[in-house]
Specification:
The complex is a heterodimer of chains A (156) and B (204). With 156 residues, chain A is of the alpha/beta class. Chain A contains 3 helices and 7 strands. Chain A has helices at residues 20-34, 95-103, 126-138, and strands at 50-51, 55-56, 62-68, 82-85, 88-90, 115-120, 143-150. In chain A, strand 4 and strand 5 (88-90) form a beta hairpin. By secondary structure, chain B is of the alpha/beta class. Chain B has one domain. Chain B contains 5 helices and 6 strands. In chain B, helix 2 crosses helix 3 (133-158) and helix 4 crosses helix 5 (179-192). The longest helix of chain B is centred in the C-terminal third of the chain and has 26 residues, at 133-158. The N and C termini of chain B lie far apart (98 Å). Classes of the chains: A alpha/beta (156), B alpha/beta (204).
Amino acid sequence: MSKFKKKKGGELPAISTASLPDIVFMLLFFFMVATVLRKNDVKVDQGLPSSDQTEKLIKDRSVYIFAGKPGAGYTDLGTEGKIQIGDKFVNIDEVQPAILEEREKLRDELKDRVMVAFKVDKETNSGLIYDVKQELREANLLKVIYVTTQAEDVVQ
Amino acid sequence: MARRTAPEINAGSMADIAFLLLIFFLVTTTIEKDRGLVRSLPPDQPTDVEPPIIKEKNLFVVIVGKDGDLFVEDELMEIKDLKEAAIGFLDNGGYPQGQEGHCDYCQGERNPSSSDNPDKAIVTVKNHRESNFEDYILVQNELVAAYNFLRDRESQRLYGWKYTEIKSAIDEGLYTGDEDKAKEKLSVIKKMYPLKLSEIDPNS
């Protein structure tokens, strides 16, 4: 009869914390894998404009073009808007070779469907961006995306 | 000689070490998700090709001045009114009933001196070279908003859902249902209001 009798009194057994490291390690690995240590060192100001009609950027087929005035540490280059592709400043006539070089880093099957992502500071002259786009047309890279920050309603 | 058993290493601080690493990676992780306005550039044209002749009334000209002033069809306008004006232009459907190209789904004013149908209507933007990129994006955003408004309206009428919602669901892989069918419907809507945005050389 006493077989099923509950143990009397008894303190709560201590919860084993032996598996705690395992849980933490699991989280750790997730974040280690998800972390992207910045590949591109952006050398220009990046105060992105905001818009509310955005679409998602597809990362594996994108090539970035940064533009804006030179950021901290590069102020000796003046305050005119500059173009950065990869990790170097380029002039307008060097845009085509630079962007094609960047494209080589993509996966083979995506090279034909490349999308050029513009990350442009909001105070840049739009004429500069127009010139870059003309270069892209000549290089036959016609899909572009202007990266912006997402806002609820930009026009009140 | 007495054999000693190797003392057990205390693993209690393992969790602390792991936590330390975890917090480091937590802080440094930035899960980047860029969003933006997608646009297709017109292909490079050989200079000897005659550009097609476009009637004045099928053009909606937006000019952004040096200081961000907005001129729409030669009149000064506030940015908040641009969307309405663009919708009015695109949705006009000026061709009368019976004529080829008549727009039977347009709900506009049917003003014969505005655009003939959405397929012919072209929005063209000219930004002064020294205008800010922010103003450029603002104008583009409003024009895309006008197109999205019309596309949403038509998809709501024909299929009972919103174009932009379904499109972003498909893009993000969240769409449940027949994706090919939905894409087909999206392209039908897209054809009703094709995105025709052009840019004029700011140097001209």
